[in-house]
Design brief:
This protein is of the alpha+beta class. It has eleven helices and 20 strands.
């Protein structure tokens, strides 16, 4: 019996498997599932080419599939099976918890299976394994169990980061040999800063530490707390457990807001301008709120502007010399606020120590990545 309580909580009875059509990779063979689980043992996630039947169980499956079992052998081992054959059996790795929900993520990229802990996918990697004969057609995700009930909640299927090579970089050189495209990208052109900026982190899963949960479909959108707080006033805590619920908002409105913050410009249809204005006021992104207000007033004076049916372009004025030496002048970043966050260490996610001096700074990975090539190249090592 599979019991579903509301939309977020799911209990899978022994020897059962739950399938939902929305638990599907956008691209065959490539994707990530993030979830919370509560179990004594055998939190089991199945990846298949097609949705399983109501009475499906992975032990009886004769079709191609991957199975990842957290807490196998009475919660002592991590197991990975390929078409029913055990290929990984590791002791003491990625075990489950029977006293509370714990967060996990499992990603697949062309046979590279990565398992991690925590709310934030692609961080806190605990294990990976590379299939030498990968199944690049798996797409559907099933939530299963063994001999005891397993509770699941907050299950989301996510695309891989734009720079999916961060997963490949963590594979031992003995397991994977080939050209490291990620390093080539960093080294080409000596990593020109004209081609690298905050816009590269727009809605990126790289280094994100906060999620917007948008609309009734609860779409997760990643962001970076230090950038948000240097641009406005967002409801964030000093812990790493932030999720901002926007049930009444739509993704295009939030995307426009974040695009303005991360790039200094955005486009939106005139019919959505009012909603963007309201959201920018809600989070006190005042430069954007002012631009929305000015545009609305201009439309009121000249209604013919609506006849074009084109998107409205909103840009941050870049003629602010006090910003130039500290942060790109075309971004709506409050430099004084950014300096304050650096001084206080609020929302920091990395500590810097110098031998003989101890702790010298509590700072932010995303900021360091913007201005330092060595830090940028090491950025994924921080997440291990």
């Amino acid at each position: 019996m599979i019991e579903e309580k509301g939309k977020k909580f799911l209990t899978v009875a022994p020897f059962q498997c739950a399938w939902r059509k929305d638990l599907k990779f956008r691209e065959a063979g490539r994707g990530c599932v993030a979830f919370d689980a509560f179990a004594h043992n055998d939190v089991t996630v199945v990846f298949r080419e097609n949705v399983g039947s109501e009475h499906y169980h992975y032990k009886r499956d004769s079709t191609p599939h991957y199975t990842v079992i957290l807490g196998s052998h009475r919660n002592r081992r991590l197991k990975i099976e390929v078409d029913g054959r055990t290929v990984v059996d590791e002791e003491g790795v990625a075990l489950c918890c029977s006293s509370m929900f714990q967060s996990y993520w499992i990603s697949i990229y062309d046979g590279l299976i990565s398992v991690g802990r925590g709310r934030y996918p692609f961080q806190n990697l605990v294990f990976h394994w590379l299939d030498s004969n990968p199944n690049c057609n798996v797409r559907y995700v099933g939530l299963s169990s063994w001999d005891k009930h397993v509770g699941y909640r907050n299950v989301n299927v996510l695309p891989l980061p734009k720079n999916h090579m961060l997963l490949w970089k963590q594979v031992d050189s003995g397991e994977y040999e080939g050209t490291d495209d990620g390093d080539e990208e960093l080294e080409s052109g000596q990593m020109s800063y004209e081609r690298w900026g905050l816009e590269n982190f727009l809605e990126s899963w790289e280094l994100y530490d906060v999620l917007f949960i948008v609309g009734k479909e609860e779409r997760p959108v990643p962001a970076h707390r230090v950038i948000l707080q240097a641009s406005g006033n967002f409801p964030l805590s000093l812990s790493n457990e932030d999720a901002i619920q926007l049930q009444d908002a739509t993704y295009p409105i939030l995307h426009a807001l974040l695009q303005y913050i991360y790039t200094g410009q955005t486009q939106i249809s005139d019919s959505q301008l009012g909603s963007l204005w309201a959201l920018s006021l809600q989070f006190e992104v005042m430069p954007l709120a002012k631009r929305c207000e000015e545009t609305v007033e201009r439309f009121k004076l000249n209604k013919k502007l609506f006849d074009s049916c084109k998107n409205v372009e909103l840009s941050y004025p870049s003629s602010q010399p006090h910003c130039f030496t500290a942060f790109p002048s075309q971004l709506p970043i409050n430099v004084q606020r950014l300096k304050q966050l650096r001084t206080t260490g609020d929302y920091s996610d990395i500590n810097i120590y110098i031998e003989g001096h101890g702790l010298v700074a509590q700072t932010h990975k995303v900021i360091l990545s913007l201005w330092s090539v060595p830090f940028l190249k090491d950025v994924y090592k921080w997440n291990e």
